[in-house]
Amino acid sequence: MEIKSIYVKENYIEVIDQRLLPHKLKKMKLKKLNDVCFAISNMVIRGAPLIGVAASFGFYFGIREYNKISYIDDRIEVIVNKLINTRPTAVNLIWAVNRMKNRYFILRNKYKLETIKNKLKNEANKIYEEDIKMCHKIGLFTNQYIKNKSNILTHCNAGSLATSKYGTALSGIYIAKEKNKDIHIWVNETRPWLQGARLTAWELNKNKVKNTLIVDSAAGSLMRKGKIDLVIVGADRIAANGDVANKIGTYSLSVLAKENNIPFIVAAPTSTVDNTISSGKEIEIEERSEEEIIKINDTYIAQKDQKVLNPVFDITPYENITHIITEKGEFYKND
């Protein structure tokens, strides 16, 4: 594995600025709560697991700014809400922030402030290390469904750039390559941020995995021609009934895969499962700026006053999914 999206340093974290890929590889230092919030909301970093890891450090950065527990008590909900509101759909973000918050309240009445800060830093490091292990385990389970000579379609980016290491959807692909399976990946470009074209193709090339970039609308034709054997995607949130929120276009792919009798796999850590919601109908779908649709870099590709709808995610129903793979194995609805 040549790619790492996040580097944990003594007093800060360093992340790849993914807005600049594939043309420029530049790292950004995140030292404060506001740095982390900016990086998440402005797509410097993205991918549900990575957002969760970064947010855990963001929580710690927010706490360490204060020198009295009473100040923290007064500001803790502001810190929590500031982080959670950066990207509302990805449940890993909420999970990580709530875990850090709960840890703070466990420590609050037991230790002095400096010890609390150190233990919160250790907790953020623990979340980072757990993410690496979880992604590797997801890869081991997913690899069982990848046959030699497979042609696999993936959507968006659910690889090393979306996690601390390995990825979710791409983890099984990397494990398959390590086991010398001959595989080829079809990479959906993934409008409008082009995470497939800019990020997935880039990291697959870095890791010497054979791949071909396609426009999103080509997937159905390739399936009908028998050129796709398997679809593997990640997830930003999974409801208790198994409905999955993932990058816009995922639902369409699941319909096409079902029509063409192609297995459709979702790979995600258990931290992505939200048992507080019964179905995908309850998942808040983030909508982003109209300029993401009508502009590419600094060039307008549509009229400036064009009306735009830009939902970032869609909901794939459980019945369209062949397997949901986590670090614990297969997930079943209401599990």
TrEMBL record:
Protein's UniProt keywords contain Transmembrane helix: yes
EC code(s) of this entry: 5.3.1.23
Keyword match ATP-binding: no
GO biological process: L-methionine salvage from methylthioadenosine
Keyword vocabulary terms for this entry: Amino-acid biosynthesis, Isomerase, Membrane, Methionine biosynthesis, Transmembrane, Transmembrane helix
Catalytic reaction(s) noted: 5-(methylsulfanyl)-alpha-D-ribose 1-phosphate = 5-(methylsulfanyl)-D-ribulose 1-phosphate
Residues engaged in binding substrate: R46, G47, A48, R87, Q195, N246, K247
Record pathway: Amino-acid biosynthesis; L-methionine biosynthesis via salvage pathway; L-methionine from S-methyl-5-thio-alpha-D-ribose 1-phosphate: step 1/6
One Gene Ontology term of the molecular function aspect: S-methyl-5-thioribose-1-phosphate isomerase activity
Active site, renumbered: D236
Entries under Pfam families matching the protein: IF-2B
InterPro entries: IF-2B-related, IF-M1Pi, IF_2B-like_C, Initiation_fac_2B_a/b/d, M1Pi_N, NagB/RpiA_transferase-like
Site (Transition state stabilizer): C156
Transmembrane spans: 36-61
Similarity section: Belongs to the EIF-2B alpha/beta/delta subunits family. MtnA subfamily.
Function in brief: Catalyzes the interconversion of methylthioribose-1-phosphate (MTR-1-P) into methylthioribulose-1-phosphate (MTRu-1-P).
Name under which the protein is recorded: Methylthioribose-1-phosphate isomerase
Organism: Candidatus Mcinerneyibacterium aminivorans
Lineage of the organism: Bacteria, Candidatus Macinerneyibacteriota, Candidatus Mcinerneyibacteria, Candidatus Mcinerneyibacteriales, Candidatus Mcinerneyibacteriaceae
